[in-house]
Design a protein that fits this description.
Chain lengths: ~325, ~190
């Protein structure tokens, strides 16, 4: 069987010997190799392997929309921002922060991304579903602020000393939590059910503990390939064998006060810990009004698209870098 | 009788690659069918690139593992499966060569052993090995791009049309470069062919 003259007349009949030898030169015997399915997915896929209890709130939507534009916003020689990474962080932070009902709180949390040494802190001031403020501060200098106050939403991002901010109606920016199911629910059963609902993982309570002075349930989520809906999910779930997501869930508010992701090899890759929390506190109105740093103009947006445009627009020319006046006199008549 | 050429698509396609890809997406175990189909071509291509049997075997496994992981992201409309798979193989070979600071080379690994199992007499075998060694020397002196095309053509068994999307060049550019390479080899190989 030869293939050197199959469709392109590359080899003329006079070259047949050369072609045959080239073919033979490349026709090494193939060893008896068996395909070994990867034991673990790529590291990047393992970071947030577990599906977190399901809320898809407007908070998440706007947070993600905002962080997605970050690389464009801060392009051109400044420190790059991995939008996907920030997206995952913002999603996690936001989901951890939502609560059911009228519980107001203020918390400070640290997150450690242990496999790459990065980390961030978050501070959340939560009054109600339509009144809260989140500050995200990354060790890499990236900062993200989101303030929601009724139908007013502000989003600001900073990197490398540059801040951009936008303000717009919450209803048009996807910030409408009315009727949304938030947080872990109102009972331990709700929490367990939400983490198990995907089918490919199972959540069980494994004791109680105290985090930041609060009583918590300890919940461990592990892969459960046998209950996956599709073969693809089963493969994914199987690839997470040995890994576990542990959650420490507040017994009163059902806020997640700590999470820890353990990989299949036993290493902990991610940890989120609430270090300070006050529940049932009155917040001043000023906590829900964004104040831009000096020199930063807040752009007005009417919808998500214009918010993105405003955040990713080229920075305005500083006044002192304007081109010098022309020496040529212009007749303005 | 030893197999003297990498099989072509036509030889191996009672079921299309596309159908196998779809099946593997539904049932990951079916990825084994794609593996069996492409194992010889991937292994021989990698052996031609890195020149060491053990390393080629390790890289072959790596390539298929990467392909298995990335299969959900593969878009059949953008490139044939074979082109997509061999782009993974190409990157793996390049990474390996960079890591080991090795000049890529065609290898005679295992070929001499295989020839001894043919029905040819000892003299004919010795003559052939000698000739292949000379050819191997000529190929080894070619630049990297030309050796790459030879590997894709003669080790992986691709046509010019199939090589083009793998290396990101037009068909005519690939054909031109391969023709030039073969002519170059022919010039040096002339004596051996007499």
């Amino acid at each position: 069987m030869t293939n050197f003259n199959n469709d392109d007349d590359l080899i003329t009949p006079g070259d047949a010997r050369l072609a045959a030898d080239l073919t033979e030169l490349h026709a090494a015997p193939v060893p008896d190799l068996r395909f070994q399915r990867p034991a673990l997915p790529a590291r990047s896929e393992r970071r947030f392997g577990f599906r977190v209890a399901g809320i898809t709130t407007g908070v998440v939507a706007i947070a993600l929309a905002a962080v997605i534009v970050a690389p464009g916003l801060f392009g051109g020689g400044t420190q790059p921002v991995d939008a996907a990474e920030v997206l995952a962080r913002a999603s996690e932070v936001t989901q951890n922060n939502a609560v059911e009902g009228d519980t107001s709180y203020h918390l400070v949390a640290t997150s450690e991304v242990l496999y790459d040494g990065s980390g961030f802190t978050t501070e959340v001031t939560f009054d109600a579903n339509d009144r809260y403020a989140t500050e995200y501060r990354g060790l890499d200098g990236y900062a993200f602020d989101q303030v929601v106050n009724g139908d007013d939403t502000w989003i600001a991002m900073s990197l490398g000393g540059e801040t951009r901010a936008v303000h717009g109606p919450s209803s048009e920016l996807g910030i409408d939590l009315t009727g949304q199911s938030l947080g872990g629910g109102t009972s331990l059963g709700d929490v367990l059910a939400q983490y198990t609902s995907w089918g490919c993982q199972i959540a069980t309570q494994q004791g109680e503990d105290t985090i930041a002075g609060r009583s918590v349930y300890v919940i461990v989520v592990t892969p459960d390939p046998d209950n996956c809906a599709t073969p693809e999910e089963r493969v994914k779930s199987e690839s997470l064998a040995g890994s576990a997501l542990t959650l420490w869930v507040d017994q009163e508010t059902f806020l997640t006060l700590q999470t820890e992701q353990k990989e299949g090899d036993g290493t902990v890759s991610f940890r989120y810990t609430v270090t300070e929390i006050e529940v049932g506190v009155d917040h001043p109105d000023s906590a829900f009004i964004y104040e831009a740093p000096p020199g930063v103009t807040i752009a007005e947006a009417t919808d998500m698209s214009s918010a993105k445009d405003a955040l990713s627009a080229e920075p305005a020319e500083p006044a002192d870098s304007a081109p010098p006046e022309s020496d040529v006199e212009i007749d303005k008549r | 009788m030893i197999q003297t050429a990498a099989p072509t698509h036509e030889d191996l396609e009672p079921v299309s690659d596309q159908m196998l890809v779809a099946a593997a997406r539904e049932r990951p175990d079916d990825f084994g069918l794609l593996y069996e189909r492409y194992l010889p071509r991937v292994y021989r291509y990698l052996l031609a690139r890195v020149g060491v049997r053990e390393e080629a075997a390790d890289l072959t496994q790596l390539v298929f593992m990467r392909a298995f992981d990335a299969l959900p992201k593969y878009r059949p409309g953008k490139a044939p499966f074979a082109a997509w798979l061999f782009r993974i193989a190409r990157n793996a070979a390049a990474d390996s060569m960079r890591r080991h600071h090795r000049r890529p080379t065609t290898s005679l690994n295992g070929i001499a052993d295989a020839l001894t199992t043919t029905a040819d007499g000892p003299e004919a075998i010795a003559e052939k090995i000698d000739r292949l060694e000379r050819l191997h020397g000529h190929v080894a002196r070619l630049d990297n791009g030309k050796r790459e095309l030879l590997a894709l053509r003669f080790a992986a068994g691709f046509s010019v049309r199939e090589i083009a999307p793998i290396v990101g060049k037009s068909e005519s550019a690939v054909k031109k470069q391969l023709t030039r390479t073969i002519n170059e080899l022919k010039e040096h190989y002339h004596d051996e062919l007499q």
